[in-house]
Structures are given as structure tokens and as C-alpha cells.
Amino acid sequence: MTTSTVRAQRATTATSPRRRRAPLAPVPRWWRDATAAAGWAVILAVVALWVAGGGVQDLTTWGGFLTSTGRVAGLVASALLLLQVILMARVPWVEQAWGQDELARVHRLVGFTSFTLLMAHIVLITLGYAASSALGIWGTTWDFVVNYPGMLLAFAGTAALVVVVVTSVKRARRRLRYESWHLLHLYAYLGAGLVLPHQLWTGAQFLDSTAATVFWWGLWGTTAAAVLVFRVGVPVWRSLRSPIRVLDVREEAPGVTTVTVGGDGVRALPARAGQFFQWRFLDGPGWSRANPYSISAAPDGRTLRLTAAHVGDGSARLASLRPGTRVLLEGPYGRLHGGVRAHRKVLLMGSGIGITPLRALLEELPQRPGDVTVVHRVRSQAEAVLADELQALATARGARYVQVEGRRIPGRASWLPRQAAHLSDAQALREIVPDVAEHDVYVCGNDAWMDAVHAAALEAGVARDAVHLERFAY
Q1: For residue 5, pLDDT beyond 60
Q2: CB within 8 A of 339, min separation 6: which ones?
Q3: Do residues 328 and 237 touch, judged by C-beta distance below 8 A?
Q4: Run of H or E including 376
Q5: pTM (2 decimals)?
Q6: How far apart are CA 474 and CA 177, in angstroms?
Q7: Are 469 and 447 contacting, i.e. CB atoms less than 8 angstroms apart?
Q8: Which residues on adjacent β-strands are paired with residue 292?
Q9: What is the pLDDT of residue 2?
């Protein structure tokens, strides 16, 4: 059988009727506002409990000022640490309200703020106690670590958090494989757990009133429950109740693999085109590390399909999977789906392997002829993954499929190839889609390319909340 025949068969399969679920309703905007308000309420409650516990009265002396300020910094740092864990605990209502892209950004901001306040807490508390002690700064530090209950554990927990923060800096992340970064990032849970005894045994504001005790135990308990239920319990329960297994593995292109999975467990997953899962394949070493992959075909209630480029150990393993391998899935996640659509017309823009969730969207989105345009940015025709399926789907559904091919423009942050360097990014967008301002724009690709598309779409008149994108950078 020739390669062209195989491609033709795949294209025909791509356009064959699939049982579609009912359209996903838009997530109410107030969900996001409510979760943000809840986060700020937690911080306000922390400060209020500090004031009620005499924190303001302690500011009258230099030593008291340092100590009391250090305490409130530590309390807010602890609250922020727990909030950032909740943000990434895969709580469905939080994730649906924000989307993983925005959650990751807020998580990073909250995390660095928490770490900064934690360091301020350590320094201020030490200086405050040293101001009223004959031991001096170093003697006071030694006394804290050795003689105060829970401080050795808190010191170890702080060291674990330092590792997480250092490896989360962009320059450090670029030097780490995803698998290594993911393993190191788990130390955040260790760090959070190790500081709890310190708060219980030596934190006056933690236990000085019934309200404070209930608040802090409630916050810790809620965080632990969110992680255990949504990061561990739900995926394991789904897998044990209704196993999901690999059905088919095929090479889509050199260095690109498509995997199809199925089983009774797929029916219980409310997945929509454009969303992604955290995938674990139980095929041997490395199974414990989850990798985020978008689904590359509209869900039909029977199977799920992913298409991924080999960019690391996890994705390279896909090519060696065997049918029958058990699969653990967390998800679905992400807001790159039809539920956030606000306009009748839609522009789908994908770069490289980022075209995969958009291919699924093209298949699933309700549309009339001319409503949907697909722009597929590739460096060369050989890298146009799923191009045959995209063209076949576009033809069948009355959409327009446009390939933008060529090397990037040197010395310019742009979504265009060098042969279009005479155009601005917004001008090129308007040439392809003259009425782009009346579209929802879905974008997926590498970070820099998505930034360029986002900027061009806004310049071309697209409403800010009509641009939908999902980042997978760690």
C-alpha cells in the first residue's frame, strides 16, 4: 500500500461521521471572579487574625516591630503557599474558570511572592529576636534551628522550597528536561508539609485563638483534600473502575506519533475538542511522570487520540507503546474549547505540532460554510503534521485551510515567514481574514509565536477576551 493511499484513508476516516457530545456551555465569568475573591479573602483573613492577635500593638519597639512584621510576612507566605498548591491541584471548578495557561501564570506569581515573603519572615524574625538577645544574629539563628520545636523540619522545608523556586526561574527551566523539572517541582509538596509542625509548635498567631486555629486547620485541610482527591483519588478511581488501554500507535511523520486509546473509562470523561489531559502510560520506567498532550481528534465517547512530537523522553516513549498498555488520565483540562466561543466566526491558528488541538476543534465546532478559517504555520511541507486530515475536514465542513510555509523572519518577533517580511503581523492577518475583528481566535504553538499572534490579533481589532490560547511551557 502506498503512502498516498494511507494518507487518503486517514483523511477519509477524519471526515467520517462521529457521535458528538452536546456543546459545552461557556463557563460563567463570575466563577473566575469568585475564586479570585476567595483568594483575596484568605489573605485578608490572615492579616485580620494577626491584628486581632496583637500584631499592631507589638510594633511599638524596634525589636517588636521586626518580630511582628516578620510574623505577618510568614503568615501571608504560608497562606500563599497553600493557595498556589490549590491553584494547581486540578480542582475542576477552578481550572474551568481560569484555564491552565492563566492558572500557571498566577501560580508562578503567587509562588514567587510567597517565597519572597518567606525569606523576609526568616530575616525579620531573626533580627527581631537578636535585637533583644545577647546571642547576636548568628547565635540567635543557631538557637532557633537547634532548640525551637519544629525548626529543623522548617529549615528542611525551606531548603526544598528554595530548590523549587530556583528551578522555576526561566533560565534554569530552559536547561532542564521536563521530566527532571517535574520531579524537582514535587519538592513543593514536601516543603509545604515540613513547615506545618513549626507553625503548630511555635506559631503564636496559629494557635492564639479558636478562630485562628479553625482557620489555619481548615486551610491546610482544604489544600490536602484538594491534592488527594483531584490529583490522586479521581484519576486512580477512574482507572480502576473502568480501565483505559492503548488501541493503536502509528508514526504520523518522522519524530511524530499518534496514539489512540479506548475503553469504558473514556465514556466517563467529559472531554471536548481543544482540551488536554495529563497522560501516564503504564509501560515501565517513567510511568509515574505525567505529560500534557492535547487530543487531536474530536472525542466520540469511545476513543481519545493524541498526536505528539518527540521533544523529550516522555514523548519519545510514545513510539514504543504497545496496544493493550494501561493508561492513567487526569483531565480534561484547558479552556481552548468551543465553550468559550463568543462569535459565529472562528479563526484557528496553529504552529507546528500546536495544530493538533485545533484539528480537533475544526472537527467538532458547530459551523456553517465560511465560518471557520484554519491557518497552519509550518517551516516546510514535510513538517505539516495532519495536513491531509485538516484539508479533508475543511473541505467536508466548508471551512478554509491555509498553510503559511517558510522559515521565520530573522531579527523580528513575528508569526510570519521571511517571505512576508514586508507586511506587519496585523496586516498579514487582515489579508488572510479581512473581518478578523469579528472572529474568535484560537491559538496554539510555541510561546514566542503565540505572543506574536496574540499581539497581531489585538492590533487587528480582535477583542481581548476573544483570543484563546493554551501554553504547555513548564
Answers
A1: no
A2: 23, 24, 25, 26, 27, 272
A3: no
A4: strand 372-378
A5: 0.76
A6: 10
A7: no
A8: 278
A9: 40
